[in-house]
Specification:
Elements lengths: L10 E11 L13 E11 L11 H22 L6 E8 L5 H5 L4 H10 L9 E5 L5 E8 L10 E6 L8 E9 L15
Parallel strand pairs: 3-4
Antiparallel strand pairs: 1-2, 2-7, 3-5, 3-7, 5-6
Length: 191
């Protein structure tokens, strides 16, 4: 039994990943500011690990506090930059169900993050899977106000070296400060 240290959760560890892309894959320098991608993650004890639970609403409700903390942590990292795209993900340890992770990724979790970035209108792309410590996950990104802006379809890969343990879920939120460098596929523009 884990002692809760964050509301209704036991969080073992917080993670932060920042990458700045200054040139595209062929070496062409950025057409404007570099792309900054930020991933914030938390290794959370999965209280449902090892058993089937019909009603996961307690995790959904409690996830609002996680969303608020993710928003605060982002505020402390982003500085004067502006978030223009986002995505979220879960990595569920082997004793848990994928559904346990999804229970922590709903709108209840996401809305406080939307508020922290100054509002957002678009659906947040998400993904998840079960994995062992050190598993990587590709988190999809899309424009925060309009899902169909092609220039902002992107991905950031994240890895949490010692998580998830079998009885944990890693919850992650990813953010980007602009769309892809030299995007040139047309379609709806962010402006």
């Amino acid at each position: 039994m884990r002692t809760n240290n964050f509301g209704e959760f036991h969080i073992r560890k917080w993670y932060l990943q920042i990458e700045d892309t200054l040139a595209n894959e062929t070496g062409v320098l950025a057409d404007g500011e570099p792309v900054r991608k930020i991933v914030i993650g938390a290794a959370v004890h999965n209280s449902f690990a090892g058993r089937f639970v019909e009603d996961l609403s307690s995790a959904v409700r409690a996830s609002a506090a996680l969303g608020e903390e993710f928003g605060k942590r982002l505020q402390g990292v982003i500085g004067n930059a502006r978030v223009v795209s986002y995505g979220k993900a879960c990595l569920v340890g082997s004793a848990g169900e994928y559904e346990h992770g999804n229970a922590l990724l709903t709108t209840v979790f996401a809305d406080p993050v939307r508020s922290a970035i100054g509002g957002a209108k678009a659906w947040i792309p998400s993904t998840g899977k079960r994995g062992a410590p050190g598993a990587s996950i590709d988190i999809p990104l899309a424009h925060k106000d309009e899902l169909y802006v092609r220039s902002h379809y992107d991905t950031v890969s994240a890895m949490f070296a010692d998580a998830p343990n079998a009885d944990e879920i890693v919850i992650a939120f990813a953010f980007a400060t602009r769309g892809r460098l030299h995007s040139r596929l047309g379609g709806l523009q962010a402006a």
